[in-house]
Design a protein that fits this description.
With 638 residues, the chain is of the alpha/beta class. The chain contains eight helices and 33 strands. Helix content is 19%, strand content 28%.
């Protein structure tokens, strides 16, 4: 295509089709995909010339589109064909050094040919774009998405040109704003761009939109399910097959296009970290396509102050992870990156990761599920948020919805987290309580938590208080505390620490640790040395084991990662140095401290409920047998 003004696109006045947003599809990777990854053209637009007309009063306009027909004699100052290229998925910060600190608008364009088969639908799917995106296909406005870490999609069946060149143009803006989620301030790099996969999904006219299968916590011989079709079609038959479990059952849709029911598996093996069993699930609509997934079944619940996985007590040996490439700069976006990260997690001895502080790539979730690693997922309600703003609340709810819809069938996901370190206020309490209620309304089979902050009373650093008004909405009390790192005093006498936690609920310490520059050595009281970080972990772990109701520990963090808040030259150089590994993948001394701690936790597993019952039953039989033998012996003597 010849010269094009940004967002012009070769029509007199481009008609704006406000396509009705379609609900999110799940199980993307098992559908028929046309890959739009690869080379995309891009143009940096600092002043948004391609979007606003400077003659207009911008404050009075909403979305004025600068789409006008151009004559041969008229000046055109933009040319996508001559623009540089960027590999997608990626972030612009690490791909172009000039854009390392850039926050603003960049336009992306992809030209492609596509053949849509008869009686099929085409759905344009984005894994994630950070942060605000406006999407156009062949000059037609598809819609807008807000939020940098969750998927979204559009039905493009009536817009895509069959067997001709199509062009996709996206306006992307990662400008930080107070009303955004996250807000203005956060402790990670604000990577901009198309950071995850772009696909066209081909489906039949009637297709399975999304679904979930849930094991009954009280009866492991029952699996309930809910399947939603894209149309309110009545009496549409669907065949569900899980061959290994001898399930082959037909069900029918109700008037809302929903299919629900209960399955009765035979010889079900539950998914667990020790045995991450996945079954092949097949969903076959009458006269339509078959959708396949790999799915595990497990129960997760709280009993008093314990977490029960499949009815058994479990200790979560965790670590925090940011979505950053394991040995270089940039947003993590491939299976290769994920495998490196999870190999480190396993080497450390973990069975659990907290994916901070936003939804991570689906590759991470699915690969962790195969490897038997439990997951905490979270939305970026982080630090100070516009808690009084209804649009901000709706944004957070939408991100939570998109996250849950995407991962609702992943057996390893056990916790939805609604926030991290948010300052106390009535508006904040109202905001977070609504998020907790919303999460439960979408999925009541998992646990709800959030990371709160421990508090000290002034002048008394030995007493740590864990108290939050949102606790009543949480299944797990989780908190961050960097004793020995932040504050005036180093932690020298962990035995004196007292934990005051007024809840009979399981407790996870969701962040703790210290910073160290890998390769910088000294005594254990010199900040930034590996020895200092090592000692902080030694002292922390001594006092952490005193925490009442403790069911998990999650050190901060697996790898060093980029953050604009970390400006100490020579030491930080824009990196948060709290990693157990450096940003180049080298272990620090703290690695062995955590590994040994987790080895002890594995060597002394918590006694399971059913084992206790079996033990007492066998012991009772033994006592009866001995008593009976003594009684018979005494009779014989007589």
């Amino acid at each position: 295509m010849n010269k094009i003004l940004i967002l012009l696109i070769q029509y007199e006045i481009i008609s704006i089709i406000l396509t009705k947003p379609i609900p999110q599809l799940n199980n993307i990777f098992n559908r028929k995909l046309f890959n739009l990854n690869g080379k995309w053209k891009y143009i940096v637009d600092l002043q948004e010339v391609g979007y606003y007309d400077y003659r207009m009063n911008i404050s009075n306009q909403t979305f004025f589109l600068n789409h006008k027909n151009k004559t041969k004699d008229e000046l055109v100052e933009y040319n996508f064909d001559a623009a540089p290229e960027m590999e997608i998925p990626s972030d612009w910060n690490s791909k172009n050094h000039k854009l390392f600190f850039y926050e603003g608008t960049i336009w992306f364009k992809k030209s492609f040919n596509y053949t849509l088969n008869n009686n099929k639908r085409a759905i344009l799917y984005f894994g994630a774009i950070n942060y605000e995106s406006i999407v156009y296909l062949n000059g037609k406005y598809l819609g807008k998405h807000v939020g940098g870490f969750t998927p979204f999609n559009f039905d493009i069946t009536d817009i895509i040109k069959n067997d001709k060149e199509n062009f996709l143009i996206i306006k992307i803006d990662n400008t930080r704003k107070f009303e955004n989620v996250p807000s203005l301030f956060f402790d990670w790099w604000n990577y901009g761009g198309i950071t995850r996969d772009v696909f066209i999904i081909e489906t039949n006219k009637i297709y399975i939109q999304n679904y979930n299968f849930t094991l009954n916590k009280k009866n492991y011989s029952e699996i309930s399910f809910n399947i939603i079709l894209n149309d309110n079609i009545y009496n549409k038959s669907l065949l569900i097959t899980i061959s290994e479990l001898n399930i082959n059952a037909k069900f029918y849709s109700n008037k809302k296009g929903i299919i629900s029911g209960i399955l009765y598996p035979e010889n079900l093996i539950l998914w667990s970290p020790e045995n991450p069993k996945l079954y092949t699930l097949k969903l076959k609509l009458e006269d339509d396509e078959e959708l396949i997934d790999q799915i595990g079944f497990r129960s997760i619940e709280v009993s008093g102050n314990k977490i029960l996985l499949n009815g058994n007590e479990i200790f979560l040996r965790g670590v925090n992870i940011h979505e950053e490439k394991p040995n270089s700069e940039g947003r993590l976006n491939s299976y290769e990156d994920v495998k490196i990260m999870l190999d480190r997690v396993i080497e450390l001895g973990c069975n659990f990761v907290r994916l901070a502080h936003y939804p991570h790539n689906e590759y991470m979730i699915r690969e962790a599920e195969k490897k038997g690693i439990l997951i905490w997922e979270e939305i970026p309600v982080y630090w100070t948020i516009a808690f009084d703003n209804i649009d901000t609340l709706n944004n957070a709810k939408n991100q939570l919805t998109e996250l849950i819809y995407r991962d609702i069938n992943r057996a390893n996901v056990i916790i939805w987290s609604i926030s991290n370190e948010t300052p106390l206020s009535k508006s904040r309490d109202n905001f977070l309580s609504k998020l907790a209620i919303h999460a439960k309304s979408l999925d009541n089979s998992r646990l709800i938590s959030m990371a709160i902050m421990g508090k000290y009373k002034k002048g008394n650093y030995n007493n740590i208080f864990i108290n939050d008004n949102i606790a009543e909405y949480l299944d797990i009390i989780s908190f961050n505390n960097y004793f020995g790192w932040y504050g005036k005093k180093l932690l020298k006498k962990p035995a004196k620490i007292n934990w005051i936690i007024p809840y009979n609920k399981p407790v996870i310490i969701s962040e703790f640790g210290a910073g160290a520059k890998q390769g910088y050595h000294g005594d254990k009281f010199t900040r930034w040395t590996e020895e200092f970080q090592e000692n902080v972990y030694i002292q922390n772990l001594k006092t952490i084991e005193k925490i009442p109701n403790l069911v998990g520990t999650v050190p901060w963090i697996l790898n060093d990662f980029l953050s604009p808040r970390r400006m100490l030259n020579i030491i930080q150089d824009l990196y948060n140095r709290k990693g157990i590994f450096s940003n180049e993948g080298e272990k620090k001394l703290a690695f062995n401290i955590i590994k040994k701690f987790y080895e002890k936790k594995k060597e002394k597993p918590l006694l399971r409920k059913n084992i206790r019952k079996e033990f007492f039953f066998c012991f009772s039989l033994f006592i009866i047998k001995i008593s009976l033998s003594i009684f018979l012996s005494s009779k014989k003597i007589e």
